[in-house]
Structure formats: C-alpha cells, structure tokens
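From the pipeline queue, job 12 of 40. The input is one protein chain; the requested action is below.

Action: predict structure.
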Amino acid sequence: MILPIIAYGDPVLRKVAKDIDKDYPKLNELISNMWDTMYNASGVGLAAPQIGLPIRIFLVDTTPFSDDEDLTREEQLQLKDFKQVFINAKITEETGDEWAFNEGCLSIPDVREDVSRKGTIHVTYLDENFKEHSKTFDGLLARVIQHEYDHIEGVLFTDKLSALKKRMLKGRLTNISKGKIVVDYRMKFPALKKGR
C-alpha cells in the first residue's frame, strides 16, 4: 500500500527515532508498504519518520544509480541490485575525505543541494529477519545510507547546508510545509493538518 510521505516542517522529521524489536506490530506489512511508497515516488531510500513513524527503520535500493555513466564499472556493480532493510541501525564510524554530492529528499521535493559527507562508513544493523550485520560501505552507497540514517536521527540534508544556503531556501521550504508545491506522489503537509 502506498502511504503519504511526510513533508518538511512536520515535527516527526525532527525526532530521534526509537529502536524496535521483532514483535513490532505488522512489521512485514510496514516494510512492504515502505517499499511500495518509495518506488511510487521514484526514491532510492525511505525512512520510517518520512511516513510518520518515529522508529529506526529505513530502506535503501540503489539500483537506479547503477546506470550512471560517470561511475566506474566497480561502483555500478556495487549499486546494482543493492536492496536492504536497516533496522535499529547505528553508524559506528565515518572515515575518509569529505566529498560533495547533489542530494534531494522525498520529504523536501524540488530542493537539491550539494552536501559534503565522509566517504566510508561502518554500520551495525538488523535486517528484516532481525539478523545482525556489521558492514562497511563506501562511495555513493555510503552516502545514501548516511542520508537515510540522518532521518532516524532527526536530521535533514538541509541542516548540513551553509547559513547562506539555508536563508536562500527558507521561502521554498516554507512553501513545501504549507503544501504549496506540486508533486506526483502522495504527501502529507504539516500546515494542512486539521485545526491549523
């Protein structure tokens, strides 16, 4: 089932999400709905806060990036068919030089900016079967994971921009929170909630 994506300005996007256990109600259904929602919006990642749930789950599928001709063959193969559920993830280490890449976010449509992040990360997480993993990721794959991980920490990519960039984007971000934007997927806007 396709769920609405929570827009910039909603407090749920600013909460540090809580760990869950394998008894979380209808977890498999939730994960299936998150995949449906992400693919419907042409995303490569989606975190539970983006559908209104302050819990530590995010999904990543970097397959669409594997066609990028600017990447090496090795990078393309790394991204091709990478599809993973991350539950209760913890980035334990970020290393390497910071590099900039143009990022966007399904909760902040039509805003794309260069964000600098470290090149290599080490992550511990549980998969959808609650099997434990401890892995190192680098390059574009690390970046997508870092972006989604930020969501479960209550951080948005716009927080990583300079003060000047933030001021320049303020009007656009306000419009997004008020629903003054056209998108081709379902969204829920904080300013349009009942009683406001």
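Job complete. The mean pLDDT is 94.
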